[in-house]
Amino acid sequence: MSDTSPNRIAELRKLRGMTQQALADAVGAHWITISKLERGKLPLSFEWAERIGHALGVGEFDVFRTRFAPNTVFVDGVIIEGGRAFYYKDEAGNLDHQAYMIEVETAQSPLKDWFIIENNALFPFFQTNDLVQVTYVDPTEIDLFIDRLCLVSMPIENTDKLNSVLGFVVNGRKSGFDLNIPGSAPLRDIKIEGVRPVTMALYNPPVWDQRSGRPRQKKA
C-alpha cells in the first residue's frame, strides 16, 4: 500500500482478506462508497472511521493515515470550571483563531478546534495547560457518541445563542440526554443542538514561556 493513500482502509481491509463488497456489507453501505472512501473521493468522517474500524477489528483512529510532525496549533478557545467553553475573540467581538500560537507535534484539520484547559477545570481528567481537540460531526448522529467526552452545544433559554460545555453525553434518566461534567454537577435533560467529540488530547505541551510564565502569544 502506497504511503500516498489518503487513509488505511484498503490496507487494513486487504490484511483481513476482505473485498470492498464484504466491507460494505459489514458497515451497511454500497461498495462504491467504500471505494470512494479508500481513494479520498469522499471525506473520511469520524463516524465512517468508527464504523469501518469496528468492521475491521481496529480502533477508529487506526483507520486514519496520520503523520505527526511539528505544526503550529492555533488555540481557538479556553475551557474553564464547570466544563464551560469559550472562544477567543478580538476587541471587535469577532472570533480570533490566531490569539494563541503553539508549536506541537500533531496533525491539523479545518474540521477541528483546539481548546486549552484553564485552572485545572477538569481535574483529574485534564490539568492546567492541557490541550483538547474537538471535531465537527453530523449533529443528527448523537447516539454514536453516548458515553464519550464531547463538547456539547445547547440552546441558552430565551435567546438565540448556544452554550458549549465539555462533558460525557449519557442517556437521560427519564428521556433525552444528560451531560456528566468532570468535577462539576451533571446537567439533566438537556437539549443538544450539536456535539463535537474529543478526538485528541495533548498533556502538558510546551505552551508556557518559562521566562515570563505566560502563554506564548502571537496576534495575527
Automatic annotation (TrEMBL):
Name of the protein described by the UniProt record: DNA-binding XRE family transcriptional regulator
Keywords carried by this UniProt record: DNA-binding
GO molecular function, one term: DNA binding
HTH cro/C1-type domain span: 9-64
Superkingdom field: Bacteria
Lineage, broadest ranks: Bacteria, Pseudomonadati, Pseudomonadota, Alphaproteobacteria, Hyphomicrobiales
Signal peptide: none
Pfam families registered for this protein in UniProt: HTH_31
